[in-house]
Specification:
Protein name: Zinc ABC transporter ATP-binding protein AztA
Distance between the termini: 12 Å
Family: Belongs to the ABC transporter superfamily.
Keywords: ATP-binding, Ion transport, Nucleotide-binding, Transport, Zinc, Zinc transport
Strand content: 15-25%
GO molecular function: ATP binding
Largest sheet: 6 strands, mixed
Number of strands: 9
Radius of gyration: 19 Å
CATH architecture of the domain at 1-67 and 184-270: 3-Layer(aba) Sandwich
Pfam family, one: ABC_tran
Bound molecules: adenosine-5'-triphosphate
Structural class: alpha/beta
Length: about 270
């Protein structure tokens, strides 16, 4: 599987005119697993929202050549106090297929049971969400993602505060999805885990530092460059006009310095 699933074309994303991800160009191939890494505030969640279509580009474009898309936001953005059961949450995975008020048939119920079994939550159907541990909640969210039967799956920090056994179980699921030809982008911070289990990596520091095979992206010089870029941005940096051009607000120390010019050394594609 070598065709393009996602293409970023000079993509700039942000909030109220303040760019948070700048001029990103590159592509993600179909059927690949890509870790999205970078320091806090480097734009990882912003990029996920841009791909999911929740945030419109300030400049450039993001082209997704896929059927269904599933997006799992950070757990902190999910309200667990909502009075719902595991089965209610997981059934939302049928939303794209059946609509909000659509009937769930016998086959669908069997699929739902199979997904709960696959994430280790068989028998949890009637448990209230607020009674689940963090790991059980994440398993339920993965079951919902499975039911969505998406071609492109975006996972934002799915392993936060999750024990190593659950991480391993969920990673096996993700690897099955890749085996089925789905494309997965996953935000995470654990570089050891990225090295072990993620073939591709996208390293962000508000702008693209590197995108390509993990062993090359995680070279010390790229990590150093990411740290330097991140430290050079301040929260009030750069306004974008409608065309994606920047004003003369504070910028990285010297955008034309050799380090900045050699961006995307690994190549802006996988
Ligand atoms: N809704 C928002 N309104 C305004 N600014 C925002 C909003 N969400 C994020 N930002 C800003 O955009 C920048 C990038 O944030 P983002 O959440 O994408 O970073 P991140 O790499 O996912 O960080 P973390 O690792 O801490 O989750 C930050 O400076 C952040 O303050």
């Amino acid at each position: 599987m070598t065709d393009t699933c996602l293409r970023f074309d000079d993509l700039t994303l942000g909030y109220h005119g303040h760019p948070a991800v700048h001029h990103l160009t590159g592509r993600i191939l179909r059927g690949t697993l890509t870790a999205v890494i970078g320091a806090n505030g480097s734009g990882k969640s912003t990029l996920m929202k841009g791909i999911a279509g929740i945030l419109k580009p300030i400049g450039g474009n993001c082209f997704a050549r896929c059927g269904r898309l599933a997006y799992l936001p950070q757990q902190s953005e999910i309200d667990r106090s909502f009075p719902a059961r595991v089965i209610d949450l997981v059934s939302l995975g049928f939303w794209q297929k059946c609509g909000l008020l659509g009937r769930i048939g016998r086959e669908d119920r069997a699929a739902l049971a199979a997904c709960l079994e696959a994430v280790g939550l068989a028998g949890f159907e009637k448990r209230p969400l607020d009674s689940l541990s963090g790991g059980q909640m994440q398993r339920a969210l993965f079951a919902r993602t499975m039911l969505q039967d998406a071609d492109l799956i975006l996972l934002d920090e799915p392993f936060n505060a999750i024990d190593s056994r659950t991480v391993d179980d969920l990673l096996r699921l993700i690897e099955c999805w890749i085996g089925e030809g789905r494309t997965v982008l996953c935000v995470l911070h654990d570089h050891d885990l990225v090295r072990e289990r993620f073939p591709q990596t996208l390293l962000l520091a508000r702008e693209l530092v590197a995108l390509g095979p993990t062993s090359e992206v995680l070279e010390p010089e790229n990590l150093l460059r990411a740290r330097q870029f991140q430290e050079a941005w301040d929260e009030d940096a750069g306004w974008c006009d409608a065309g994606g051009n920047f004003s003369t607000d504070p910028r990285p120390a010297d955008r034309n310095a050799p380090a900045a010019r050699s961006l995307n050394k690994v190549g802006a594609h996988v």
